[in-house]
């Protein structure tokens, strides 16, 4: 029995979601391989080969799959999956895109977004925006699984020594053409695995006011997130959305500012270790799950928070 | 151009769900049901294409209980022309849903199928991708923008890193994000008109499709409830708590 993990990367570096997915794979079986599909991806293969616990890295280096479109990746998976009992990918927009496509071609049901491994055929997954937890058992011969990264601790990104196998495929032409990508550039930590996240909601009132959050994020080395309302209003990009239809985060500290706390937002952050809520409405549902609540006008509280952090840092020095 | 839109009837997004005490599932009795929110965006986008003269017909399909007729009617009240209900009492997995929709596509021959990107009940996010695989059509998932040309569509996909732009040949399957558009409210005259629009009800047995489940629900439990903690008086106290009590900053 062996498990194949599909690496998430951008041809230059490996995404941390892969390390969480490897942890889930190792809970299923010790024989774990990783597939790196892409173009000019030697650096990613190198990074992947030293991940803790990996036996083999399979590299496909092909110009036609540079952008890892679902129609291509599914062709690769359909051919390669016969050697495996389980195929795992992170439950990110990357994995969500091609995994069901490959599963359907193989006439296999996918198990989405697992949060725990019970046994080789039984898994736990949140449903209804995380308000219910289902334990499900799959009867398919090959199990296609997407993994919720925040539910599995990342394995060490070094210390391993996997063998590398290069393979080639004849891929059928596809009817989708890549045009371009607009990737948000940020010096801050990645939202999905930052130690601290500070998120803003509709209460921020404008895109410009997000600079109040950015200032604090920089002092705490935090990622900046947002509620769907803030993204819909155009205050901040979609890549920052936390929630049922956005990203799942589980940092050590989550600070929700001007966010009322709709079920759909809570779905994306309620696994955080410590939750802070700053809101002027004392009836906001976010307070019901916050470890520390502060009823305050954020336009007063945020500058003060920033100043207090400076004081704290000065004392530390 | 003919468009097919798939819609699902789910527990309304505002309802706090309750898990049944015997752990067999979620309580659906006397609970407000609605169209799955991103499916509404799919319906809206199709109707917009009809309003602008790009599409000639919008057909809405749903799979499930008799009551799913309500969901189809609300799509027709928004402006869809015709409805199809594949009637079943069983819980249908995304793979089986995709197989059923494939059969409908083969019969109806649409140029594009629109679906919501995920259903807010089981949060699977699979059906659109699976349908396009079974049809061997290209897919455009999690779209927040759609442009329709003669033989292609241009889409903007919402991805974790930002946005991705693709050009896709028709026929194609797209799955819609909530940011694609603002679904319209149906007016009372349109709700009345929708009652007279054609709605075919087909028993699932007549399709002769294997819908046997591959994934068994062993149990469904209530998620652990997170308890709120303390309210702090001011920012100073908050900082002190975070530093010396929680030790996270």
Summarize the structure.
With 317 residues, chain A is α/β, with parallel strands linked by helices. Chain A has 8 helices and 16 strands. Chain A has helices spanning 17-28, 42-49, 70-80, 93-105, 210-220, 228-232, 263-269, 298-316, and strands spanning 3-6, 32-38, 56-61, 86-90, 110-114, 116-119, 122-127, 132-138, 143-147, 163-166, 176-183, 196-200, 223-226, 253-257, 274-279, 292-295.
Defining key terms:
heterodimer; A: 317 residues; alpha/beta; Rossmann fold; seven-stranded parallel beta sheet; 27% strand; elongated; B: 249 residues; nine-stranded mixed beta sheet; two-stranded antiparallel ribbon; 6 helices; 27% helix; 31% strand; globular
Please give a structural write-up:
The complex is a heterodimer of chains A (317) and B (249). Chain A has 317 residues and is an alpha/beta fold. Helix content of chain A is 27%, strand content 27%. Chain A has two domains: 164 residues, Rossmann fold (3-Layer(aba) Sandwich); 126 residues, Rossmann fold, CATH 3.40.50. Chain A is built from eight helices and 16 strands. Chain A has a seven-stranded parallel beta sheet, with helices on both faces. Chain A has a five-stranded parallel beta sheet with strand order 13-12-14-15-16. The longest helix of chain B has 15 residues. The mean pLDDT of chain B is 97. Chain B is an alpha/beta fold. Chain B has a nine-stranded mixed beta sheet, sandwiched between helices. Chain B has a two-stranded antiparallel ribbon with strand order 2-3. Chain B is 27% helix and 31% strand. Chain B has a single domain, classed as 3-Layer(aba) Sandwich (Rossmann fold). Chain B has six helices and 13 strands. At the A-B interface, helix 3, helix 4, strand 5, strand 7 and strand 8 of A face helix 3, helix 4, strand 7, strand 8 and strand 9 of B.
């Amino acid at each position: 029995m062996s498990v194949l993990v599909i690496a998430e990367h951008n041809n230059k570096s490996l995404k941390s979601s892969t390390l969480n997915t490897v942890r889930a794979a190792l809970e299923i079986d010790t024989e774990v391989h990783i597939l790196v599909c892409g173009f000019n991806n030697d650096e990613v293969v190198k990074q992947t080969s030293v991940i803790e616990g990996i036996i083999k890295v399979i590299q496909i280096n092909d110009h036609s799959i540079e952008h890892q479109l679902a129609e291509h990746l599914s062709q690769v998976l359909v051919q390669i999956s016969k050697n495996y009992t389980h195929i795992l990918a992170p439950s990110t927009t990357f994995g969500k895109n091609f995994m069901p496509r490959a599963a359907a071609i193989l006439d296999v049901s996918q198990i989405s977004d697992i949060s725990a491994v019970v046994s080789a055929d039984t898994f736990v997954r949140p449903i209804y925006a995380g308000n219910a937890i289902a334990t499900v058992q799959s009867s398919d011969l090959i199990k296609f699984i997407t993994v919720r990264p925040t539910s599995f601790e990342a394995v060490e990104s070094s210390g391993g020594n996997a063998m590398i196998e290069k393979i080639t495929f004849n891929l059928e032409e596809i009817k989708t053409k890549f045009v371009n990508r607009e990737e948000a550039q940020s010096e801050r930590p990645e939202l999905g695995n930052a130690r601290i996240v500070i998120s803003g909601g509709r209460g921020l009132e404008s895109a410009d006011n997000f600079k109040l959050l950015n200032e604090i994020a920089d002092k705490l080395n935090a990622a900046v997130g947002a509620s769907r309302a803030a993204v819909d209003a155009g205050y901040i990009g979609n890549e920052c959305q936390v929630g049922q239809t956005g990203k799942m985060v589980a940092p050590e500290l989550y600070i929700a500012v001007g966010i009322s706390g709709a079920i759909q937002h809570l779905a994306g952050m309620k696994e955080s270790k410590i939750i802070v809520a700053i809101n002027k409405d004392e009836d906001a549902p976010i307070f019901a799950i916050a470890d520390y609540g502060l009823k305050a006008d954020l336009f007063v509280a945020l500058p003060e928070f920033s100043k207090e952090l400076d004081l704290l840092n000065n004392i530390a020095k | 151009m003919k468009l097919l839109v798939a819609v699902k009837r789910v527990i309304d997004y505002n309802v706090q769900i309750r898990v049944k005490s015997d752990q067999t599932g979620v309580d659906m009795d006397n609970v407000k049901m609605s169209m799955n929110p991103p499916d509404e965006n799919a319906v809206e986008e199709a109707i917009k294409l009809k309003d602008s003269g790009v599409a000639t017909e919008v057909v809405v399909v749903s799979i499930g209980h008799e009551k799913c007729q309500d969901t189809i009617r609300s799509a027709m009240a928004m402006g869809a022309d015709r409805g199809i209900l594949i009637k079943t009492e069983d819980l249908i997995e995304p793979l089986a849903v995709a197989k059923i929709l494939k059969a409908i596509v083969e019969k109806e021959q649409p140029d594009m199928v629109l679906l919501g990107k995920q259903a807010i009940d089981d949060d699977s996010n699979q059906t659109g991708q699976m349908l396009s695989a079974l049809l061997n059509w290209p897919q455009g998932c999690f779209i927040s923008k759609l442009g329709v040309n003669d033989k292609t569509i241009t889409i903007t996909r919402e991805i974790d890193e930002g946005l991705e732009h693709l050009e896709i040949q028709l026929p194609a399957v797209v799955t819609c994000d909530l940011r694609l558009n603002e679904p319209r409210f149906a007016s009372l005259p349109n709700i009345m008109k929708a009652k007279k629009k054609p709605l075919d009800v087909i028993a699932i047995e007549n399709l002769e499709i294997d819908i046997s489940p591959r994934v068994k629900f062993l149990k469904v439990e209530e998620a652990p409830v997170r308890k709120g903690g303390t309210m702090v008086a001011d920012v100073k106290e908050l900082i002190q708590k975070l530093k010396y009590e929680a030790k996270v900053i």
